[in-house]
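Hi all, posting the design record for the shared folder.

TITLE: backbone redesign
STEP: 1 of 1
STRUCTURE INPUT:
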């Protein structure tokens, strides 16, 4: 088990990685799923043997409120159907924390429950916000869970210039679920999960 990292350099590196993902040209992405709420693309990850997913959609609300629903805190557990528990293990200054959370089984439980321990960081980006995270090898793995690993991932949320009450939400997710899983099942689950994330988030914001 690793000790907790120094948050400042990790936060800076994480932000730079996400900004780099955000500048990847459209031609490198392939559409994986399209719904009325969001479009999901993917490309091979540079971090592991799976995919880096990009999801994007317009959400009707102001940036701060949307990000408050996504980042670690009281809102997320209430509306995100995939998340079954969340504990903040450590809080650092400047919007950094370490959280442990568990996810529900997916695809008729072909993908069993997973546990993650993530470093999370929220910072300003252009006129909006970026909330991002990466998994840490920290803390004992609890029985009955497989420990998954999130490679650098995050959500950019910026107000639409023509419509300030709406925001463009763009996510980059690359999750290594680990355990004995067929890659095709993982890919199906990831695309659907990201599309559902947008519809669930929109319902929560209107509630």
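Okay, here is what came back for every position:
SEQUENCE:
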């Amino acid at each position: 088990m690793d000790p907790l990292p120094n948050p400042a350099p990790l936060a800076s590196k994480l932000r730079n990685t996400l900004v780099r993902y955000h500048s990847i040209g459209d031609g490198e992405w392939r559409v994986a799923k399209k719904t009325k709420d969001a479009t999901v693309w993917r490309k091979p990850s540079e971090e592991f043997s799976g995919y880096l997913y990009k999801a994007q959609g317009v959400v009707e609300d102001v940036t701060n409120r949307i990000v408050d629903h996504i980042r670690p805190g009281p809102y997320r557990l209430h509306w995100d159907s995939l998340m079954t528990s969340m504990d903040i293990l450590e809080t650092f200054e400047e919007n950094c924390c370490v959280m442990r959370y568990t996810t529900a089984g997916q695809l008729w439980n072909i993908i069993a429950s997973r546990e993650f321990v993530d470093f999370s960081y929220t910072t300003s980006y252009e006129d909006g916000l970026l909330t991002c995270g990466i998994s840490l090898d920290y803390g004992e793995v609890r029985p009955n869970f497989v420990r998954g690993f999130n490679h650098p991932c995050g959500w950019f949320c910026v107000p639409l210039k023509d419509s300030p009450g709406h925001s463009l939400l763009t996510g980059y997710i690359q999750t290594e679920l680990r355990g004995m899983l067929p890659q095709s099942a993982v890919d199906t689950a990831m695309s659907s999960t990201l599309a559902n994330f947008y519809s669930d988030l929109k319902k929560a914001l209107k509630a």
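COMMENT: Helices lie at 7-22, 63-70, 74-79, 183-206.
Let me know if anyone wants the other runs.
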